[in-house]
Design the sequence.
């Protein structure tokens, strides 16, 4: 089982797409084990996007990501980090494959609706940035017998 940090960026909330995007993760069989509506402060933005601070587009990204509430969540499932990255799609909504979330709903390189951790190290780091241990609630889904064979993870 893997855990990955996902958040719906302010454009998702403003465009009333939160429910439809979350539904896709639920439909896939991923478990939502933490979730909250919150505002990203400039300090949190700099911590989360530390690798991008030097980029010439960072300030614009910070303005966007702090410009309205987000919904942060932790998703759990087999190979969840890769599965969710592929569901989210390429960074630029214009080139993301049409079946991906960005491919379906975004026509922007910046306003691409969803963040998802890109590997095990960043998942661990980002979960620690957004959630305290007591905010995480893992559980066995009752539909588990109908999601995967018993011998699968
Ligand atoms: O989110 P992802 O890992 O796909 O992309 P990234 O290259 O790590 O960039 C982080 C975020 O910065 C993107 O999701 C975009 O919202 C934003 N960005 C931007 O505003 N302008 C760019 N030229 C590249 C990324
Ligand atoms: Mg990234």
Sequence:
């Amino acid at each position: 089982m893997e855990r990955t940090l996902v958040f719906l960026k302010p454009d998702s909330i403003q465009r009333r797409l939160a429910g439809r995007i979350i539904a896709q993760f639920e439909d896939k069989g991923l478990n939502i084990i933490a979730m909250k509506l919150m505002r990203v402060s400039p300090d949190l933005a700099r911590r989360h996007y530390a690798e991008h601070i030097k980029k010439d587009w960072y300030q614009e990204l910070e303005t966007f990501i702090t410009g309205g509430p987000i919904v942060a969540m932790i998703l759990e499932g087999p190979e969840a980090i890769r599965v969710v990255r592929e569901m989210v799609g390429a960074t630029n909504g214009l080139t993301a494959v049409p079946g991906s979330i960005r491919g379906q709903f975004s026509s922007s390189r910046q306003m691409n609706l969803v963040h998802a951790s890109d590997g095990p190290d960043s998942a661990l780091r980002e979960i620690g940035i957004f959630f305290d241990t007591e905010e995480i609630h893992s559980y066995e889904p009752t539909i588990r017998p109908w999601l995967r064979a018993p011998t699968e993870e």
